[in-house]
Design goal:
This protein is mainly beta and about 500 residues long. About 10% of the residues lie in helices and about 50% in strands. The chain has one domain (about 80-490): Porin (Beta Barrel), CATH 2.40.160. β10 and β11 form a beta hairpin. The model is unreliable at about 10-30 and about 30-40 (pLDDT under 50).
Length: about 500
């Protein structure tokens, strides 16, 4: 089980940054002060909500709104926020404006039994740092230019960097955009490098948990109204390399995604996604993913469902696969003195019962945020899996959120593999004699926002192996794992 050891301080000194260690020392004091209130203007929640899942969708509308009342108001004496607010609307002329911003993220990892390929029994301890900075220029009503850079590093550790941990001085987003009003809405066309984020991010996500994030080169267009949105795109996924020069893969990713919010409290989405990989070593892939996603609430009851079907060819084989998510939840505000919710989710993604035949049946997860749905340790992908999860969230203080998530994992097909969050097969019993029981994972997470520009997160996860993992362990590998992390995010 991980512990807070002196090696954390030694690793921080290696990078000339004592911030993670300092945050560990300050955590109790910050938590005690998290519910302090001050004079109004603006709401701290509005400041945090201004930053989107992709920074080019940031909306700083709170700068034009009146000051609110309530326990979530920001401190007007906060000099950092006042300085960063001034960066969001810099006039260049009477017809042009510039917005500047970004973030600095530091995360400490203490991993027992996970290893570089996940669940191989090796331990590691290291720091991840990530800097992002953007410039967003608006020219008149119709033109826009956006550039965002990223630098992600790993310090310390015994094992080589994973594919999502290191990128040195790269352009994360760089595009030009033209937009105009049309039929009561807005139409836009964007060309260049850009991140993609759609729906619940089960299939298309920039993967914020990863240190490098995920991006694409290509074009994207769309139309927006108050209740309807549709996007179409044609892009090439980028391949990030820790040491070699980054490049575009020989893959085309295109699609259409529509969203409708015409019913109060409900969201309905439909999409069609195509992944076309040129032949490499003899066989290519070209398949479609069709899906419907819905979510909403009926009084205190919450619901969500997403149904996905895939068809085409995968590495030269006839390919058909499916995935299903069903979730039911409850808003417990009427039962508890603090805001709280409880969710139960069932996820299933098909596997291949006969890997040796001429057909492929293992669901392909595309470009997902598996971390949000299959555990903090990233041991499981949306491929050949059946998972039941229970998620309880409570806010004991206005700026402190506590989360507990329990997962039970089983293979959908015993003769197929266990795939980690990167889609890599890490365990397999072709004969299926090891069974389907992968194991159980418990995630405990605390998120604190002591200031509108600062987020702190402390997480601990424990995985206990089931019969499948125990039967497929290598020599000297127990199959159990523990993970402790501490993260700080400073936004500017």
């Amino acid at each position: 089980m991980p512990v807070l050891s002196p090696s954390l301080v030694r690793t921080a000194l290696m990078t000339r940054s004592l911030l993670p260690a300092l945050l560990l020392c300050l955590w109790p004091d910050l938590a005690a002060r998290a519910d302090e209130t001050a004079e109004p203007c603006p709401a701290a929640g509005a400041v945090a909500a201004a930053y989107g899942g992709v920074f080019y969708d940031n909306r700083f509308s709170y700068l034009d709104e009146p000051c609110p009342e309530g326990p979530d108001r920001a401190d007007p004496r906060d000099g950092v926020r006042r300085v960063t607010d001034r960066l969001k609307a810099i006039p260049l002329s009477t017809w042009a404006a510039l917005a500047l911003g970004g973030e600095l993220r530091l995360r400490y990892h203490n991993e027992d039994g996970i290893g570089s390929t996940r669940l191989d029994g090796r331990d590691d301890e290291f720091l991840l740092t990530r800097m992002r900075a953007y410039a967003d220029a608006r020219i008149g009503r119709y033109l826009r230019g956006y550039v965002e850079i990223i630098d992600a590093r790993k310090s310390g550790g015994r094992l080589p960097p994973r594919g999502i941990e290191v990128v040195r001085g790269d352009i994360l987003n760089g595009f030009g955009e033209i937009a105009a009003p049309l039929a009561g809405g807005r139409v836009f066309l964007r060309g260049g490098r850009q991140e993609l984020l759609f729906g619940a991010q089960r299939l298309v996500s920039p993967l914020n948990w990863g240190n490098t994030r995920r991006n694409f080169d290509g074009i994207r267009g769309g139309y927006r109204t108050a209740r309807f949105a549709i996007d179409v795109w044609f892009t090439n996924p980028r391949v990030i390399r820790a040491r070699d020069r980054d490049r575009n893969g020989r893959t085309d990713f295109s699609g259409v995604y529509a969203s409708w919010t015409g019913l109060p409290g409900q969201t309905l989405e439909a999409y069609a996604l195509n992944l076309d990989t040129d032949p490499q070593a003899g066989a290519g892939s070209n398949f479609w993913t069709f899906g419907i996603h819905g979510k909403g609430r009926l009084g205190p009851l919450l619901w969500e469902t997403e149904d996905m079907l895939q068809t085409g060819t995968l590495k030269g084989l006839d390919f058909h696969a499916s995935s299903l998510t069903v979730g039911l939840g409850a808003d417990l505000a009427a039962l508890l003195p603090r805001p709280a919710t409880l969710w139960i989710h069932y996820d299933r993604a098909s596997g291949d019962n006969d890997p040796g035949d001429a057909r492929a049946r293992t669901f392909q997860q595309l470009f997902p945020l598996a971390h949000a749905y299959f555990g903090a340790m990233d041991l499981v992908a949306r491929q050949n899996i059946a998972a039941v999860s229970a998620r309880f969230m409570v806010k004991p203080l206005p700026r402190l959120t506590m989360l507990a998530v329990f997962h039970h994992f089983s293979l959908a097909a015993a003769s197929d593999a266990l795939y980690n969050a990167g889609g890599i097969a890490i365990r397999r019993d072709p004969g299926g004699r090891a069974g389907r029981d992968v194991g159980r994972e418990l995630d405990l997470i605390a998120r604190l926002a002591p200031r509108s520009w600062l987020d702190l997160e402390l997480g601990y996860a424990r995985f206990r192996a089931g019969g499948f993992v125990t039967a497929t362990n290598g020599p000297g590998v127990g199959g159990n794992a523990d993970f402790l992390y501490l993260q700080s995010v400073f936004r500017f």
